[in-house]
Amino acid sequence: MAKVKESFLKLTLRFALVFFIFFTIIKIIIKLFTTGSFNQLQQAYFGSATWLPFLTQVVVASLLYGLFMAGYYKFFKNK
Predict the structure, then answer these.
(1) In the chain, count of helices (H) and strands (E)?
(2) Residue 35: what are its φ and ψ, rounded to 5°?
């Protein structure tokens, strides 16, 4: 079976999307346990002034992870 070469962008987006989902779930679960209530979680991450920093942090971390992992798989692992 021939190995299909995926584009760097497609690999980056795939890794970033998976990381985005897991990272968001883990951050929410940790905050829920540290604050102890759903209302405090909602204020900390989804309030009117806090949802944009939360989303920005998760998106930037996901893209950096996606770039790193795609670079690793595309340029180092397959050599």
Answers:
(1) 3, 0
(2) -85, -35
pLDDT of 55-70, one tens digit each? Answer: 999 999 999 999 999 9
Q: What's the Cα-to-Cα distance from 74 to each of 3, 11, 19, 64, 69, rounded to whole Å?
A: 13, 8, 18, 15, 8
Task: For residue 57, give both structure tokens.
Answer: 């942090």
Residue whose token pair is 């987006």:
13
Which of 66, 55, 78 is CA-nearest to residue 4?
Answer: 78
pLDDT grade for 3, boundaries at 50, 70 and 90 = low
